[in-house]
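Risk register update: the risk of archive-format incompatibility is retired. Evidence:
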Amino acid sequence: MASKFHIDTEEWLHIGVSVVTISLAFSLFRESVFSPDYFWLIFLTVGLGFVLHELAHKWVAIQYGATAYYRASTFGLFAALALAFLTNGSLVFAAPGAVYFHGHVTREQNGKISLAGPLMNLALAIGFGALAVWAPGLRELALTGVSVNAFLGAFNLVPIGMLDGAKVWAWNKTVWLASFVSMIAVLFFFLSV
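Archived output:
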């Protein structure tokens, strides 16, 4: 039987610190002068994509009977800011933390838990893309949402180390390929419209 989905105060704190840090990493070093408007644009699009990505992992893990919680990574938070600083915001290490889960899960279940986050980013990228088409006044916000979510999803699907892609790849290479190609296709489709 699945456990109840719950986020405690400590988990919200870890999520909040991660969202602010990754938003700063994406926005702080791109321009010579910090733009609060651009920060809030990134905070909304990155924040939404990041939080829902992590909560999707947690929700699926709980459905398989695992205990799951999000924790920020000191290294990941530092690396996000440091790499953004060193590359003038061109490259961001978008892994400020992760959902950890405890309980017995199969390789397939672990693959599905790992895939849940990138699929959430894919859904958000498509949703922001639709917004770009149907609400031209929100085009900048919408296209930022497309690119940020497609980037987060594709980055997390890279099949190395502790990234989601390694677990999806270990479970099912066809599912991994379809997910990765879909992420890239959505990015190029909406950015060319």
